[in-house]
């Protein structure tokens, strides 16, 4: 659990990074309309949530950095009986004052008026350049940009989100524990001739059953050749006997994501060719995870993964040129086209910076959480691939915490050896 004290600390830390005589506005996420009066499920803006822990829409967090003193102000929706009847209870100004460790709380309808006040004698305005908040955008378009330096607050907050606190790591672990239940369940049940979306439904059921009611991302259940579409989310085909299924499924627990991929046989048993390919990917994944420690660069993990996968692909006769030639012409990219992993946290792809302002790569530091996810993708249509390997796509993905000593594989309990996967299928 993240306490009010921790949220207050984050705001204080952020304030210390801001220019004197500046004003910062962080907006809640907007409600997204599906059609007419139906809405998509609401999910709070990640940076707003990181700084406040507040889940309601039409809210604003304002940080005022004066010459000497600073102040934090929260704007929340006021209580309105009729609207609450339709859309649910609101916290309201009074209770928000008690719940949050901010200096002042006002109702959101005062936001514009207050903002004009706050802007007096300020030189810098920070806001998230990706915001779609109409009220704020309208306000900004009406101020004279000559009087103010305008800066992107998201960059600074996302920098802070790079290093996870103990309580954040606990929530990520919990999210992974829920994902584990779902993945193991999927390994156990009979799958032949059911549809990909049925398996997707199992994941979503187990997630919600365990308190992960928001999606972290759309579950990928890709049978056979569908696994060669990297972001396959149609999930509408039949799972066939003898094929593999690539399942990329994680959940969001109290606003923290897990991001796990396992590739398992539909009928519970790997064929000889599938096993060969699978064990190559597993070997590479294990090796790359073991390289994770403070000071290591992500690009060197990428390079090593490409090297090891290429060697394997040459050995299987999938790549037919010499190792040197393959690397020089990047021929292996055809079969391993994506990155080795990404940072995760409140977002499944946390928008943390990978590079410094001077365009230098940021090396791994204790407290970062990243995925390691090598894969090989061998499309059915590619006739240069030996027939027995065609139509197979394999990815294995775990969630890794960088520690002072090296790393902790947070998802190591989710089985992935051929032996363990086959044993679960039999049980
Ligand atoms: Mn991922």
* CATH level-1 class of the largest domain: Alpha Beta
Number of strands: 19
Structural class: alpha+beta
Distance between the termini: 35 Å
- The low-pLDDT segments are none
CATH topology of the largest domain: Creatine Amidinohydrolase
Radius of gyration: 24 Å
Strand order of the largest sheet: 6-5-4-1-7-8
Average of pLDDT? 95
| Largest sheet, strands/sense/barrel | 6 strands, mixed
CATH superfamily of the largest domain: Creatinase/methionine aminopeptidase superfamily
What can you see in these coordinates?
- This protein has 13 helices and 19 strands.
- The chain is α+β, with helices and mostly antiparallel strands and 427 residues long.
- It has two domains: 4-160, Creatinase/prolidase N-terminal domain (Creatine Amidinohydrolase, Chain A, domain 1), CATH 3.40.350; 166-426, Creatine Amidinohydrolase.
- Helix 8 packs across helix 9 (196-209).
- Manganese (II) ion binds next to loops.
Question: Top keywords for this entry?
Answer:
2 domains; six-stranded mixed beta sheet; Creatine Amidinohydrolase; 18% strand; 427 residues; Creatine Amidinohydrolase, Chain A, domain 1; alpha+beta; 13 helices; globular
